[in-house]
Design goal:
Blueprint: E1 8-16, E2 20-28, H1 35-46, E3 65-68, E4 71-74, H2 80-83, E5 88-92, E6 99-101, E7 104-105, H3 108-116, H4 139-147, H5 155-159, H6 161-165, H7 172-182, H8 190-196, H9 211-215, H10 222-239
Parallel strand pairs: 1-5
Antiparallel strand pairs: 1-2, 3-4, 3-5, 6-7
Helix pairs in contact: 3-7, 4-7, 7-10
Amino acid sequence: MSDPRAGELQVEVWRGGTEGRYERFSVPRRANQTVLDVVTWIQRKLDPSLAYRFACRVGMCGSCAMTVNGRPRWTCRTHVERVAEDGRLVVGPLENLPRLRDLAVDLAPFFDKWARAMGRFVPPAESGAEFAVVPPSSPERREADAAIECIGCAVCYAACDSVRWNADYLGPAALNRAWTLVNDVRDGAQLERLAAISGDAGCHSCHSHESCRAHCPKSIDATGSIAGLKRLAAWAMIRGDI
């Protein structure tokens, strides 16, 4: 019996920036082959000018995220045998981000929105000399723990319909980060952060389609985090705090 993994893959890869086209390559099919293996083979064997990103190759950095057969994925953790349709792959850059060249996108807008959402820890003005004790079983710590594993790969951002419709929308990753911080009892900028994420392009622009949750490689429920921000922001507005 012939090995179904033998033969060749027909791979279409995006070439160019905003203006470009898909080019087709034939790649030998191998056992346990990942999409990143395929892209690397093309760059090393067929076209050294192909631009793409990767680093760890083991699903820790997220830098190899691309669009594979219409879905944003980590290519290092995506096995060809799971996604190839009739021996074909279509590999493109992440959506909702400026295309630099080929499979590489400009992540500056993505991280700029983290800054706009105040996605950084702000020590309180009076922090004291002692270490803050945060019980692991506290409700706030549990809420933060559920959302804190984000590594900033931008897969959720690429999958988000709200970002596609509204380029100013902060996006699920930035808002998820804000949620972890508003649940950090040590942080000293809670009201400022709620004000930052409650504007026209903030948490209330989320339509709860759950594309972020469905596509997140780490199964983070960013939709749930954003729903939590909506509740906190609404109560802060009712109280007149923001």
